[in-house]
Structure formats: C-alpha cells, structure tokens
Amino acid sequence: MTGTQAESPAAQPVATPAATHRWRSWLLEGLSEQTARHQGPHGHAPQEHKGHKWWRVMCLTGVDYFSTLGYQPGIAALAAGLLSPLATLVLIALTLLGALPVYRRVAKESPHGEGSIAMLERLLPWWAGKLFVLVLLGFAATDFMITMTLSAADAAAHVVENPFAPTSLHGANTWITLLLLAALGAVFLKGFGEAIRVAVVLVAAYLALNVVVLVTAATHVLTEPVKITNWWDAMTAEHSSPFVMVGVALLVFPKLALGMSGFETGVAVMPQVKGDPTDTFAKPEGRIRDTRKLLTTAALIMSGFLLLSSLATTILIPQDEFEAGGSANGRALAYLAHTYLGEAFGTVYDISTIAILWFAGASAMAGLLNLVPRYLPRYGMAPEWTRAVRPLVLTFMAAAVAITLWFNANVDEQSGAYATGVLVLMLSASFASTVAVHRRGHRAAAIGFGTITAVFAYTLVTNVVERPDGIKIALIFIVAILVTSFASRVHRAFELRAGAVTYDETAARIIDEAAAQGPLRIIANEPQEHSTAEYRNKEYCQREDTHIPEGGPVLFLEVFIQDSSDFTEDLVVHGDEKHGVRRLRVHGPGVPNTVAAVLMNLRERTGEVPHAYFNWTEGHPVSHLLRFLVFGDGEVAPVTREVLRRAESDPELRPRVHVG
Fold first, then answer.
1. CA separation for the pair 14, 156 (Å, rounded)
2. Largest Cα–Cα distance of the chain, in whole Å?
3. Which of 228, 551, 552, 612 sits 20 to 30 Å CA-CA off 252?
4. Can you tell me the distance from the alpha carbon of 605 to that of 465, in angstroms, rounded to the nearest whole number?
C-alpha cells in the first residue's frame, strides 16, 4: 500500500469535536436561558421584558392580518362573484361583532400569549386535556404553516405577474416561493430582534400604497357612474331579489374567512405589548388594555380596507380576470394599481406587497415559536431541544418546503386549509370565552358568546363541506403531532421528570438525623392509610427479604400521583412521624420517576449513595408497562432502576435498588 493510499482515509473531512460543539452551541443557543421551564406549583414566572407600544406590536400581527389584502379580494370575487361586496359586509359584521369580542375576552383570560388553547386546557383534566390541546395545536400548525406557504406563494405570484419580470421567471412560482421561505428561515436563524421595526415600516408603506390605489379606484368609479350601474344591473339580473342576494351572501361568506386570519396571531404576540409600569405577571392590566386597543384598531382598519377593496375590484375588474390564469387571480389590487396608476407605480406596489406577504410568514413563525415550546416539552411530548428557537425554525421550514411542493405554490389550493385552521381556532376561542363568562355568572355575555360560537361552527362546517381538502391537510398535521408527541412521551418516560426537589422543615430534620447514622435506607411504600402494625410488618418483611442491616434507621417514602398526564413537576417532600415510623411523602407525576428524583437529590444532600427497597408487584410485565405510561405506577422497582441508570451513568454513584 502506498503512502498516499494509507493517508487517504485520514484526508476525509471530518467534524472535529470543537466544530461539533460550536455547531451545537449555536443551534441550541438560549436553551439554558429558558425561564419557567418547570411548570410545577412552585415554578417561577418568566422575567418581564420592556416590551413595545401596542401600535408597534399591531404592525407585527398586521403583517399577517393586513397582508391578506394581497389575495383576499380575489378570493372573495371567486367565491361570491358580483355579490362579493355583500358577502364582505357579512364577513365584516362577523369580524366586529364576533371575532373581536371573542379575542378581547381571550386577551383578558390568557394575557401571556397562550391564547384560547390555554383556556380550554384548563377545562379538561388528565389525558383528555392533553389530547385536546394536541388536536388544537394541529389546527394551529395548519393555520400558521399555511400562512407562511400561502403568503410566500402569493408573493411569488406578484413577482411573476409583474410586467418588468424577466420571462425566465414565468412558471417559476414554486422556486420563487421556496427562495422566499429560505430567506424567512434565514432571518429567524440569524435572530428576530428587529422584527417589530421592520413590521412597522412594511405595514405603514403597504397601507399607504393601498390608500392610493383605493382612492384612485374610487375616483374612477365616481367619475364613471355607469360602472356602478353595470355592476348593479348584472348582479340583479343574476339574482332575482334582494332576499336571494342576502341569502347567497350568507351562504358563501365562509369562503371569505381568510379575512379574519390575524386575530390568533394578535393574542400570540401579546407578550410583546409593553403595558403599564405597575403591571405584574399575575395582573398585567395595562397589557390587557393595550392588547384590546391593538385588536380593535386592527379590526377597524382591516374592515374598512376589505369593504373598499371588494367594491373597487368587483366593479372595475372583469369577472373572468379573477379565474385561474387571469391577470387578477390572487392579485386583484395589484391589477388595479397597474391598470390605473401605471406600470412604475404598480411595480412599487408589487414590491411592497411581496415584502409584506413574505414577512407575514414571520408573524406566523413567531406564533409557532410561541405555542410549541409552551406545550409539547411540558407534556414530555417533544425533546428538550424544542425549547430552543433554531431547531424549531429548521423543523418548520422543512414542513413549509414540503407543503409548497405538494401544492405547487398554488394560492387557491392552499386557501381551503388556511381557512379551516383559522376557523377552528376561532371556534375554540369563542367556545372558551363562552365557558369563561358562564362560569363567572354573566348570563347575557354567555348567550352572546354562545351565539358567536354557533355562527363559527356553521362557518367551519360549511367550509369543510365545500373544501374538504382543508380538513384533510389539518388532519395530516394533527396525526403527525399526535404520533410524534406520543412517541416522544414514551421515549422520554424514563427521565427523572422533576424540576426542583425541596423539603419541608420536618422532612429535612428526619433526613439529616438518619443520614448522621450512615447511608439512607428508604422503603418505598404504597401511599395509603396504614396502621402501626402494617408499617411494622412492612419494615420486618423488607429487612428479612432484602437484608437491611440490623439496627439502622429506615425512612418510608410514599408517592401520591396527582395527574399522571403531567410530565414534569417541582417536588415538595413533606415529612412526618406517624404510626411509629418516619415518613417522607411527595406528590409527583409518576411513582418510579419521583422516587428516582428524590433518591438522586438525597445523594446530593447527604453526600452518600442512598439505598431504596421495593417489593415485586404481581401481574403481567406488559400491563405494568402500560400502567406506568398511562397511570404513572405499574411495576415500580425495575422502572425506578432504569430511570436511575439513565440519570447516572456511573454505577458507583447510582442510588442502589433492592427488591424482595
């Protein structure tokens, strides 16, 4: 073998440990700085940041909400035809009288960005609540992910349709969409500190340009009244009476639901609102007040733009231009800008639209990055790295690429899935608001919110019936979240699953006294009421079966399970001396994990490896494993040993497990 051949394997590029460490540190940056990671009863509230003025945060949510003007008029024209303005009026009524009151209530009930999902989580205990939240997260993922891909796809359509665009870009919508998504991902990988400043500039420019377009369109309509006459004559010829028009508008308005897409994002970014200097984590009154201003102002602005844009586009644009392949398909206001203000202004308008549609994905990404770390890691249904921003960004971007390729960057085909996600979240918010006011005894408010819930339910059902692809896409997200979540939960079931371990005064005294006589001897005991005779018999049997040294003191450790569906809790160990024995009693999410966490902490406290003594449990091992995964108990001894083995790699330092 030649020298060159011998050296060739070493010449292969390999990642050095230092390079791997730098890459990992960059990817997981901020993970160790997460506050309030453990959601137990003694978890600490996250430190408050300075925040921003409400109108600036409105622009952050506005890049999602206001950007729908880029495609909403075209979607409305396709759905309602000449009745688009009337259907838009119905949508505005539902926005101001339905969605706005609901989300003003959500802002009050959930002021830290959790949204209606947190409100509903509190209604259902145990695994039912967790499962319900996972389903809602599936719909939220549908909403936010499709926001990213649909907005980028519409931005790509504006690029391709611009008359100054090179002919080589024609038909390249998919690649342009992927490029825009990659740029969005790069922004989040770099950092998102300047997001609000960028959002303010984009929203101000975009709304100002839209005012110019709509004023110009209104001028043409008012100076040529025949256009209004032609539209009215065509509409009345197509529909026999005003009652039929209203009926048709009520039937088709669910297809316009995208015009309400910004409300969930509005409460998701609520932690960015500054509020008052006197605000506390428990009572952020200023933040709630200013968020309500944000929601109300955004709804009023958007309602005005929706109505005016619907009238302008319906009256001035031929209906066939809205169809697939038409010049106004997915870009109705851009069509008016080019037609009535020239190609130069139209290009400026296109650039503004492309920018805000692209950045609308940033608002949706911010919503996802707010929701996922709040729930899945806390449930044990995602790895700990999902608390870091960059790995999540890469995960979401991979999903966005897959969705874009699946739909070929088609705006119309994605709108059904988008509307489904939006409407499910609004339905959940209205239902949660109904329950919240009902529990407070506000009967009139409960009736009002109940009516809104019924309207959203009708809208959702109608949308699903007419566009079943939307619910199919949402179900794919839901199944993916359920499967990966439960797989993660099973994989992480053998972790310690404890935050802080603390002791009350009696427990600390009992432990210190026992530790003064040597390594701690802990008997794991069923946490039921016992007599002195039962405790003495248990101690005698354990000493006989597991050969506990004679004369040494023993402590009884008893674990109470409050909610086995919880993954992590802070553990507070209470001590007492009763029935002639000394007991340590603690509440935890699972018996083996809690016992292991206490043993590990006792080792650190006393400086000696403790010994734990168990009895074997009768029954089939598979049934015991299932009981452990679902109910948190089962065969405690071997699972405790496995938890300890994973928590401590050194056998010499690992707490001892004895079974008799």
1. 39
2. 105
3. 228
4. 62
Q: Do the Cβ atoms of 152 and 145 come closer than 8 Å? A: no
Are the CB atoms for 573 and 510 separated by under 8 Å?
no
Buried b (16+ CB within 10 A) or exposed e, 118-146: bbbbeeeeeeebbebbbbbbbbbbbbbbb
287: pLDDT strictly greater than 50: yes
Q: Residue 326, by phi and psi: left (phi above 0), alpha (psi -120 to 50) or beta?
A: beta
SS (H, E, C) 443-480: HHHHHHHHHHHHHHHHHHHHHHHHCHHHHHHHHHHHHH
How far is the C-alpha of 16 from the C-alpha of 32, rounded, in Å? Answer: 24
Confidence of residue 16 (pLDDT cuts 50, 70, 90): low
pTM given for the model? 0.77
What average pLDDT does the segment 155-160 reach?
85
CA distances to 66, 119, 129, 274, 426 from 123, in Å: 33, 7, 7, 29, 17
448-469 b/e with 16+ CB inside 10 Å = b?
A: bbbebbebbeebbebbbeebee
Degrees, nearest 5: CA angle 251-364-462: 15
Cα–Cα distance, 11 to 211 (Å, whole number): 63
Among 158, 571, 141, smallest CA distance to 375 is for 141
Strand order in the sheet with 611-614: 498-503, 569-578, 581-588, 555-561, 521-525, 611-614, 656-659
pLDDT of residue 8: 40
C-alpha atoms less than 13 angstroms from C-alpha of 530 in its C-beta half-sphere: 21
Rg (CA), the chain: 30
Structure tokens, 375: 């729930």
Alpha helices (H) along 12-65: 17-27, 54-65
User: Is the per-residue pLDDT at 502 higher than 90?
Assistant: yes
Q: Is the pLDDT of residue 462 over 90?
A: no
* Distance in angstroms (rounded) separating the CA atoms of residues 235 and 232: 5
Of the given ranges (18-22, 473-477, 524-528, 550-554), which has the lowest mean pLDDT?
Answer: 18-22
Strand partners, 92: none
Mean pLDDT (the chain, rounded): 84
What average pLDDT does the segment 63-68 reach?
Answer: 86
The pLDDT value recorded for residue 298 is 93
H or E element, residue 613:
strand 611-614
The residue assigned the tokens 């006197």 is 278
| pLDDT of 193 above 70 | no
For the residues of 163-220, what is the DSSP string, one character each? TTS-GGGTT-HHHHHHHHHHHHHHHHHH--TTHHHHHHHHHHHHHHHHHHHHHHHHHH
